[in-house]
Amino acid sequence: MFREQSFDNLPMENLERPAVGSMASAPAEVKAPAGGLQPTAALPTQRAQWFARASRVMPWGVSSNFRYWGEEGTMVIARGKGAYVWDVDGKRFIDYRLGFGPVILGHAYDAVNQAVIQAMQDGNVFAMTNVHEVRAAEAICRMTGVEQVRFTNSGAESTMHALRVARAHTGRERFIKFEGCYHGAHDHVMWSTSTSPVSAMGSRRNPIPVPTSSGIPSVLRDKVIPLPYNDFEMLERTVRDYGHEIAAILVEPIMGNSACIMPAPGWLEFIRHLCDAHGIVLILDEVKTGFRIAPGGAQQFFNIQADLVAYAKAMGNGFPVGAIGGKREFMMTIEPGAVGQGGTYCGNVVSVAACEATLRVMETEPVFEVINQRGARLMSGIHQLLEQYGVPHAVTGVPAMFGVHIGHTPGLPIPTDYRSMSRFADESLSHRITAALHQRGILPDIDFQEPWFLCYSHSEADIDETLEKYEDALREVLRA
Ligand SMILES: Cc1ncc(COP(=O)(O)O)c(C=O)c1O
Q1: pLDDT tens digits for range 303-344
Q2: Model's pTM, two decimal places?
Q3: In the β-sheet with 452-453, what is the strand arrangement from edge to edge?
Q4: Predicted confidence (pLDDT) per residue in 72-105, tens digit
């Protein structure tokens, strides 16, 4: 077997542990000295070594583009427990990324891990219905009000299948999505997302669909109609003109990929009304909001009923599981031999046992009360600090997931769509504050559009420490 070079046999304890923490502190290039590493002052950090290894065998050293934070900043994590993660150099972080949101109870949460360990002793994949799957589906229906569920393995699979079901149900092919909403990495939805440049999107009265990546077939362009979020008039006009061609309106109930821009009052109800009037399927993308902002997700929080809902993330506390749920009428569009949904690992025991255990904790413990209370303190604490230090900003979202828009001009309305958000954002200042937080062991995402996520394991002391360090970070950045 080809092995270019390996650090596998190097005793970790022989490596000197340099002071770390700065995202820019590690050397870029790492070469293993012949005969093994010697503990010298010039030794690279463990992070740099692991990242060098990773980069040789994985493009950019990561398994997902969003994790690439540059040559010197990309993190390598050793472990997580509760609200904390530790990097390979042993530095502890209070984690507000939580794996992009799934970790709702805490990392390596005992009740979930024990349930998974027990379940997997009896096998994992049977390509048959299993009892954990049935109990997990029942819990999802009970908590959210959907009538039926099919399991998937990720958020992208959930939106992909929901879209297919909607198309099969209506016999139409086009769908409306909103600029700055992200629905996963499949070709149909990678248009005008939260990483697309506004400069390419054209006029807001006539938006141009912008592919988020090279490699997306241009034939799909005609199938997607991107519109600005919260623009009632544009939506009404579009549905009036093209409603008979539109299978679905796919929407994030909170813009969880654009710093948690909230739906304007009446926005979700307006979408519901237009869908009813034009025979369009309303697909709520609850991959981020589901089992996070309320037990019944956004449907409960906003008192809105979708036809189909895409779930993933928090339903499994970090294990890879997703689901589509919805009204029986729409779910039963799925039909063996006629309308496809499935996959070898859909409903595998590990994933659905994790889901079952996660939802059991949610149904029996004050998970949402704790998250909401701590999240509200953090949200208002950050807002007060930014105000106190004169940093123009807006804080949007809900306590379980919220966004901090640095650079928002005081007096102007809070951003309501991707275009207005991007216009105001001071990404440079935002980035400097985030880097200073990372140095101090506080870990929000480097991209301000990704929310701060809370979990059940965040303690009052964690919130205190975070606010203390946030102030300290602000002082340093503003002094510079
Ligand atoms: C709203 C939303 N939908 C879908 C997805 C895709 O989920 P996954 O990464 O599990 O495929 C994401 C991922 O962040 C998301 O935020």
Answers
A1: 999 999 999 999 999 999 999 999 999 999 999 999 999 999
A2: 0.91
A3: 393-398, 401-406, 452-453
A4: 999 999 999 999 999 999 999 999 999 999 999 9
Beta bridge partners of 437: none
Which two three-digit tokens encode residue 30? 């790492």
Distance CA(213)–CA(216), nearest Å, equals 6
Q: Is the dihedral of CA 168, 173, 176, 179 positive or negative?
A: positive
The rounded Å distance from CA 100 to ligand 1 centre is 9
> Would you state the structure tokens that stand for residue 202, as one six-digit string?
């054209």
Say how many Å lie between the CA of residue 155 and the centre of ligand 1: 5
State the pLDDT at residue 11.
32
Please report, rounded to a whole number, the percentage of residues in the chain having pLDDT higher than 70: 91
DSSP state at residue 211: B
Tell me the CA distances in angstroms from 160 to 112, 120, 140, 144, one per residue in order.
28, 28, 20, 21
Whether the pLDDT of residue 51 is over 50: the answer is yes
Please give the number of the atom of ligand 1 that sits closest to the Cα of 313. 10
109 catalytic? Reply is no
Which CATH code for domain 110-364?
3.40.640.10
Q: What Rg do the C-alpha atoms of the chain give, in angstroms?
A: 23
Q: CATH 3.90.1150.10 residue ranges in the chain?
A: 367-479
Annotated catalytic residue, options 285, 417, 426, 462: 285
Q: Catalytic: which of 84, 96, 182, 470?
A: 182
Instruction: For residue 291, give every residue at least 6 positions away whose Cβ sits within 8 Å of its Cβ, in sequence order, or none.
Output: 104, 143, 297, 311, 313, 314, 315, 358, 359, 362
Q: 185: CA distance to ligand 1 center in Å?
A: 8
pLDDT above 90 for 35: no
The mean pLDDT value for 9-29 works out to 30
338 burial level (CB within 10 Å; 0-12, 13-18, 19+): exposed
- CATH architecture assigned to 367-479: Alpha-Beta Complex (3.90)
Q: Boundaries of CATH 3.40.640.10 in the chain?
A: 110-364
